[in-house]
Amino acid sequence: MSFRRKLLSWTGAALLAAVLVPIGAHQAAAARAAAATTLYASPGGDGAACTLDNPCSLAKAQQSVRALAPTMSGDITVDLRGGTYQLSSALSFTPADSGTGGHTVVWQAYPGETPVFSGGRKVSGWQVYDSGKGIYRASVPTGTQSRQLFVNGVRADRARSALNPAGFTVTATGFTTSDPQYLSWSNPASVEIVHLNAWKELRCPVTAITPASGGGSAFTLAQPCFGNAGAPPYPSGYFPYNGGGSPGLDSISWIENNYALLSAPGQFSLDSNAGYVYYIPRAGENLAQADVELPTTQTLVSLAGTPGHPTPVDDTDSSITYTGSWGYSSGRTYGDLGDDVHYTQTNGDSATITFTGTGIDVLSEANNDEGDIDVYVDGALDRTVTANRTAERLAQQVVYSKTGLSQGTHTIKLVKKDNSYLLIDGYVPIAAPIAPVHDIALRGITFSYATWLGANGPDGYRDNQAGVTWTGTPAVAGRVGAAVQVSRGQRIEISGGTFAHLGGTAVDLANGTQDSTVSGNRIYDTSGSGVSVGEFDDFSLTDPARMTSGDTVSDDAISYVGQEYQDCVGILVGNGRGITLAHNDIGHTPYSGISLGWGWGWASTNGGSRHGTIYSQGNAITGNYVHDVMRVLNDGGLVYTLGGQGDGTVHSIFTGNVLSTCTSASGGCQGIYLDEGSSWWTVSGNVVSQTAGNWANMWTPTIHDDTFDNDYTDVTRLNNNGTNVTITGTTSVTNGVWPSGAQNIVAAAGLQAPYKNLAIPEADLVNDGATGSLLAPGTITYTGSWTENSGRDYGDLNEDVHATTANGDSVTFSFTGTGIRVLGERNNDQGTLGVTLDGAAAGTVDTSTAGARQLQAPIYQVANLPYGTHTVVLTKQSGTYATIDGYELDKTIDDTDASLQYSGAWAVSSGRGLGDFGDGVHYTTANGDSVTATFSGTGVDFVTETNSDEGGVGVAVDGQTQPSVSASSPTRLTQQVVYHIDGLKPGVHTIRLTKQSGTFMLVDRFTFR
Questions:
Q1: Contacts (Cβ under 8 Å, ≥6 apart) of 102
Q2: For residue 924, is pLDDT > 70?
Q3: Taking the CB of residue 322, how many other CB atoms lie within 10 A of it?
């Protein structure tokens, strides 16, 4: 975050600040004015007419909408009163729930209230089960399924082994170990084997733990998971289904989910068979008071039109009858469906497909050795088509498409007419009429505590890339389920909401969803991705009515996604046309920030024999701020593109983005990463800073016809092995002197007004570069013989450190704020450092450790300093090395910050001249009034004034009541820390302060770590 904040300070950031209206309020007012009908619902509503005085249930409101929708003369608005709507199954919208006559059905938050759609089951009745280990137990209904547990809104960890357990050997059916302890585990079928390999996360359930032949334990893994997750041959071919490598489940990163693995605070285990949840509380958690949620509902809102997801049928299927002298060719390596085709050289030979549905796409091959085909539908000649389209051999081409048939069973007969060959590769049946769910808006709703159970079954979780999985036999593309799932939608709006504490993806626009928007939402703490758009196996489509197109994801704040499936990304886009990703703030991802496209080199002429077409084109990635990505996996980037973008008639655009801080724990983290087959991109006017790899990476000739112009970067590394990839006008920035052009791009990128309040305040992270080179608050000055060491592949911040071997060498940190954490390395070759703070000796720190090497470790930290300019000097005293990797600065926000939420009769007093931070405070005289701060980090200070007319303040962190504090003192003292907490789990947290007593309660500032 620090990179952008520094530049904003140079460009007049204060002018960008505004008093922001809560998201959804403007939209709600506009919708209310235009609405012909307003209905009201509440969590416990049972009214028959859905009135404000007697609101109804969600089911009754939906029933009323369906009755009104056919004759809409204006929008229908359903105002959702605040509270929790407990959903045991999805609220399902179909075409019958859609707006008509050009109007919209709006489901929105009632002004000033927060409706929460929850799929969680509250767990209570906790009892001590094992006092020695601190394990508590609570009952749940037998058979309850879930993969997550949240305590006061903080994600618990499924019980797991130590990382990289030793002694395991991969076998044809799983793993063996000489350790017999696993044979005693109860309920072994609950266990999962997890492996992080390169850019993939692989998870397979265990079906049995049995004695190994040579002694010890044998883990048998579920099929087809283990087969699909193994090493090559690939489960479903190469291009367009897979890239050049398929890292497999050939080792164990950890073992997960068994009671025997419970070992640390914050861990849980669910025994579904016995009906118990086990948990070890974290420090300060009181399970008698805590809100403990076990997510059990997979989808909270489903919006589904028809058809759903079409599944291709191979040419070998019994539904195809071949008449004449047909041959069969398998293993062709041209990219055919199933790598095989049926073919004939005899005119008059025919193939008859019998299918049930309302339409069909027939797949063949396009080449100049193929010819015309007469096509009969239900016995009548429909038209003549041709496969003689190109000198290039193109696989999986739609040679004939038909829609609009009556629902039922039909036959398609294809008769060879001329030229050398007729090939049949398969077909895609269209099961139902094209009937989208449409013109529905979800505004200002909170979605929480949904799970996703797809990884529980025999398919497990076999990642292909970026949360796209292999499922079934033969394997097909799957994906992580979403809390709000849209399938075959048109003009769907999801705006102004909060998506948090989810076991899957937040929002998925799937199966040809068109002209829909996901805008102004705060999305965090998801097991899957933030937003997913499009499909990954519909590349062959030629019918625009079924393509994913015209969708927009904008002004969303997305962070801490991939908390369970660490291959997931902030925004994922498959195949699509005219998709816009604009002004999003994306950070803290385990893999890439944005991933757009699919197919690898499939659409490139130099991609090899596997060659076809992809309908994607005209997409735009503009004005996004992407930061702090690739925290776990490798071979990704801040923004990553993949596969073809059409034929060059319409370019895709990548402009105005600010990309900063890309660190991979195992290397391979790029800035702008145009991967295999990326084509026809216009890249211009972007700012790229602090990337561990290249600022731009085009590593193979299948990347072609891309243009870079007028970009800014402080990274010298560039890799361009593409074909017809031109790079001009790049401004290389040194010593932190960014020109005005870059400053203007930074000022315009990220969330726009009125969405800036969605950004979650957090500490500033700064790399270890020399003075002024990182464009972050504060400076670093090295004195002595320090060297910069990059590309270590250890997991350093940005893959580099500064190091010295000379005692007496020093490093100076100058910063403005209240605290700093210096990051370095702890290892057995490190030693002690002397510390001075603001010119005074402050002791020593020991950076040595007898254990494993620790990366990005806090080697010195100080907090609660008076806000102002400070200087820390660290001087090497002993050991072979001193190593500096960067630093974090506490983040301080004023009482007027838009991210703060005040409840009650608060007023503002400015220009007091008493020494307040920002020379002003918020204040209230009413007991019960409160202020809530949402922040990202591990600790927080509440700073206010103390005086004789102030009193008690109630404190709650993440919903858990803390001991009250007092703001009372004999005399007035400004900028006093009256509440302080550290040691929270890294992630998003809330702190709520409530006035309890005294005449006044004041808010001056918050500081986050």
A1: 439
A2: yes
A3: 17
CA 607 to chain centre: 30
Amino acid code (one letter) for 30: A
SS3 call for 142: coil
CB environment 93-113: b (16+ within 10 A), e (fewer): bebebbbbeebbbbbbbbeee
| Cβ atoms < 10 Å from Cβ of 452 | 27
Residues contacting 414, CB < 8 A, separation 6+: 350, 351, 352, 353, 362, 373, 374, 375, 376, 400, 422, 424
Helix H, strand E, coil C: the string for 588-635 is CCCCCCEEECCCHHHHCCCCCCCCCCCCCECCEEECCEEEEECCCCCC
Residues 6 or more apart whose CB falls under 8 angstroms from that of 15 comprise none
**Residue type, position 299, single letter:** T
- Span 960-974, average pLDDT: 96
What span, in angstroms and rounded, lies between the C-alpha atoms of 491 and 600?
30
Token reading at 64: 């009323």
3-class SS of residue 355: strand
d(CA 687, CA 658): 5
Cα 842 from Cα 834, distance rounded (Å): 8
The model's pLDDT over 690-737, given as tens digits with 9 standing for 90+, comes to 888 899 999 999 999 999 999 999 889 999 999 999 999 999 998 778
Tokens describing residue 893: 């926000």
Rounded to the nearest angstrom, the gap between the alpha carbon of residue 580 and the centroid of all alpha carbons in its chain is: 17
Q: Exposed/middle/buried for 345, CB within 10 Å: 0-12, 13-18, 19+?
A: middle
> Any bridge partners for residue 857, and if so which?
824
**In angstroms, rounded to a whole number, what is the distance separating the alpha carbons of residues 669 and 690?**
10
Locate 916 and state its tokens: 């307040």
Note the pLDDT of residue 97: 98
Q: Identify the pLDDT of residue 31.
A: 45
> Pick from 75, 38, 77, 80: which is nearest to 58 by CA?
80
Q: Is the pLDDT of residue 47 over 70?
A: yes
Alpha-carbon span 369 to 421, nearest angstrom: 6
User: Please, which residues bridge with residue 427 across strands?
Assistant: 313, 362
Largest CA distance in the chain: 103
In 230-267, which positions are buried (b, 16+ CB within 10 angstroms) versus exposed (e)? beeebbbbbbbbbbeebbbbebbbbbbbbbbbbeeebb
C-alpha to C-alpha distances, 5 to 13, 584, 734, 736, 985, nearest whole angstrom: 8, 16, 18, 13, 25
Q: Is the omega angle on the peptide bond into residue 858 within 30 degrees of 0, that is, cis? A: no
Which residue is it, tokens 């405070």?
921
Average pLDDT over residues 614-624: 98
Helix, strand, coil in percent for the chain, rounding step 5: 10, 45, 45
Q: Which two tokens stand for residue 598?
A: 């699919």
- Smallest CA-to-CA distance from 290 within 916, 883, 956, 963 is with 956
Cβ count within 10 A of residue 121 = 19
Q: What 3 state SS string does 33-92 have?
A: HHEEEEEEECCCCCCCCCCCCCCECHHHHHHHHHHHHHHCCCEEEEEECCEEEECCCCEE
CB 81 within 8 A of CB 110: yes
User: Distance (Å, rounded) from C-alpha 178 to C-alpha 193?
Assistant: 17
